[in-house]
Amino acid sequence: VRRVQPAPARPCDWTATRAQALGRRGARRGRVSPSEGAAAMDKKVITLETGWADMEAGIAKLIRFLEGDEGEVIGVEQYMHLYTTIYNMCTQKPPHDYSQQLYDRYRASFQDYISSKVLPSLREERDEQLLRALVKRWDNHKVMVRWLSRFFNYLDRYYVTRHSLNKLNVVGIVSFRDGVFVELKKAVKDAVLSLVNKEREGESVDRALLKQVLDIFVELGMGGLEAYESDFEQFLLEDTAAFYARKSAAWITDDSCPEYMVKAEEHLKRERERVKHYLHSSSEDKLLAKAEHELLKVHQTQLLDKEASGCAALLRDDKVDDLSRMYRLFSRIPDGLKPISDNFKAHVQGDGMGIVRAAEEAEKERKAGDGAGGGKKARGGPSTDQTFVKRAIELHDKYMEYVTGCFQKSQLFNKSLKDAFEVFLNKGVAGNSSAEMLATFCNTLLSKGGGEKLSDDAVEEKLEKIVRLLAYVSDKDLFGEFSRKKLARRLLFDKSANDDHERSVLAKLKQQCGAQFTSKMEGMVNDLTMARENHGDFQEFLSRKASDKLALDLTVTVLTTGYWPSYPTADLRVPKEMEAGVQLFQEYYEAKTKHRKLQWFFSLGTVQVKGFFKAKTIEMSMSSYQAALLMLFNANERLTYGEIREQLNLKEEDVSRLLHSLSCAKHKVLKKEPEGRTVGKQDVFHFNESFTDKMRRIKIPLPPMDEKKKVMEDVDKDRRYATDAAIVRIMKTRKQMQHQQLVMECMQQLQKMFKPDFKMIKKRIEDLINREYLERDKDNQQLFRYLA
Questions:
Q1: Scanning 240, 435, 545, 782, which has its CA 20 to 30 A from the CA of 398?
Q2: Could you give the CA distance from residue 10 to residue 17 in angstroms, rounded to a whole number?
């Protein structure tokens, strides 16, 4: 038997018009015309019982069709008759207007059908068969609601609307809800949950059936989800929590951390698929939250702390895939990532401290080797600070890949990485600060012959990584001062490998630390550019002064005092060969510029000197001081220590260094009496004519000076100035502040460049009070006022 369902009804005007049109066509074929029917209706009032008898017959036929006992659904003529009957019964004048009675009997029709046919058949079914029967009965019920709503369309359109009653389709749905669903919802819910649990255990179930059943819960909510949520969803969530509590309790005991996470991820994926296939979309977040709580939150500590396979073990063994899965899983639960980030921070910090300890051990071994005569071998390899910085860069690259890959650029893990690096990078190694070691490493990269040969791109990459590490160093001003000192030596002694790299690293530092950080170093680089231009102008000046030919080639670099590091001044008595050049450049510069004063620093100069020895002539590269001392022996066969000091007009410590480099070091250009490895004030010196070397060009260096102490003094002085400036700037804005508040704000401003010391800030406040920048309140000693 083929069941035909009617198409959705259009507005009742169409139904009435359609009925009239069919009536007109029927009149031409010998049937009753609409006018005749209307006249008959006018003559005869339809009583309630008479009209309802016709309606009952139509409803009974529809029920037989739904139950499968009737082959055909209601035809057009019967449909027209039933619609017209309702229309006439609703439009008769009182007391024959039966609208209310029809409304009540419409509801009763559903109730009778449900009590006589639907409920008895459903009460006989169980489990999955109950669900299939329910779906079939619900479909039939909706068909019945559509048909009856059309029969009673006029009642629905006017009477129901005018009296603000429930629409007829709502009445039909409510009848099913109250008559069927209320009684069977527990059995239906249990049957659905049974199938869901079977599917969770791996069995195959009819997902389409589950979808149809759960759609009934939603549809019976009539626009809301109250029925779905209260009658099904809350039980589903409870059942889900119980299911995963049982599963996770077994997994956490039997499985390793990676195995547990794979199972958890797979089951969460299935829960999402479950929502997609048959649950309502609103259940997804709640369902996953329950599962995640039982699978992840409850066992998080135990899972992460598993000795052989927990978070620490995964980090130790570089299990990237498992760490990625761990992040994906625990990012779902509130505060789920915090324990992982703590483990990550502890691990990175541990690796970093391992680098520090290794560097300290290597430095101890190097010193022990030097003491035992193996210093030359120890110095053959990379220095301790070079090795430390390289390993720190490698460590940062490794764990930055973890942050960007496994942990999806999470800010929490970025902070953990930052905190870990700040701990060990600010420890220092064997008395050297990280700021100094980074500056030294950078200097090696930028210097000629700085060790390993790298391409330009490789150098740029290394410089970028050094600047990244600098972000974790608290004493950035110390790095800046060491870098400035080393930059000065590279520029002045022509040791810079590439000007582009010099400008590139300054640009990177400027972006990282601000324009003020690099302003002096940028000025130094610009000074060297200007010096090259000035050299050409000076050569033109010399060519115009043909009468004053120099006995030597002279190159002078003019430096701006404020940009360059401070150097000790000495009134060196230069040889006459050099003095002529100095005077000529002085004349040239005074003619070119106004209101500028030159101060000569011969200690920073280099000289190429030819030594005419018995064996051969050797070209020697040395400092201006060394050259001035050596040229004294052009006019003197022998000179005592005191005579040399007097003729050069230098300090004793400088003279001792110069004589040591020329008579006691590798290249003994001078001989001293008595012989020895130290210089005494009673020693006598003379030119060593028998000196020779296998090279025709040699470099005679000065003994290295420990610049670290000077740098630290300069940094401390700059920090005092910076602290003074910060205090005055704050007080000028606020006018008056409490002591603690002033200290905290001052520390906040200064910590970008260095880690300020509380005691130092307190001293600077006292100094500013003495200098009358600030004053204490007479009544409150903790309150300061700014003095304009």
A1: 435
A2: 11
Total-model pTM:
0.76
Q: Say how far apart CA 199 and CA 274 lie, in whole Å.
A: 9
> Which whole number is the average pLDDT over 318-327?
94
pLDDT above 60: residue 524: yes
DSSP string for 290-357: HHHIIIIITTHHHHHT-TTTSHHHHHHTT-HHHHHHHHHHHTTSTT-SHHHHHHHHHHHHHHHHHHHH
Tally Cβ neighbours within 10 Å of residue 294.
21
The answer to whether the beta carbons of residues 619 and 695 sit under 8 Å apart is no
What is the chain's mean pLDDT, rounded? 85
Cβ contacts of 717 within 8 Å, gap of 6 or more: none
Q: What is the 3-state secondary structure (H, E, C) of 518-536?
A: HHHHHHHHHHHHHHHHHHH
Residues in contact with 452: Cβ distance below 8 Å, sequence separation at least 6, in sequence order: none
Confidence of residue 15 (pLDDT cuts 50, 70, 90): very low
Cβ atoms of residues 333 and 302 within 8 Å: no
Task: Express as a percent the part of the chain with pLDDT over 90.
Answer: 40
- In which residue are the tokens 């005191």 written? 642
Mean pLDDT across the stretch 205-229?
A: 90
714: Cα separation from own chain's centroid: 37
For residue 506, report the phi and psi dihedrals to the nearest 5 degrees: -65, -40
Nearest CA to 556 out of 605, 596, 484 is that of 605
Q: Are 259 and 310 in contact (CB under 8 A)?
A: no
DSSP-based three-state secondary structure for 198: helix
- Edge to edge, what strands does the sheet with 684-687 contain? 638-640, 684-687, 670-673
Write out pLDDT tens, residues 355-410. 999 888 888 887 776 655 544 444 445 678 888 999 999 999 999 999 999 999 99
- How far, in Å, CA of 536 to CA of 555, rounded? 10
Distance between CA atoms of residues 147 and 143, nearest Å: 6
Query: CA 787 to CA 717: how far, in whole Å?
Result: 24
Question: Per 3-state DSSP, what percentage of the chain is helix, strand, and coil (rounded to 5)?
Answer: 65, 5, 30
Kindly write down the DSSP assignment for every residue of 725-750, as one continuous string. Answer: HHHHHHHHHHSEEEHHHHHHHHHHHH
In which residue are the tokens 């050569």 written? 539
pLDDT per position as a tens digit, 692-736:
988 899 998 887 777 777 788 888 888 888 899 999 999 888 888
| CA dist., res. 273 & res. 204, Å (int) | 14
Q: Which residue has the tokens 């650029």?
A: 409
43-96 pLDDT per residue, tens: 478 899 999 999 999 999 998 898 887 767 788 999 999 999 999 999 988 888
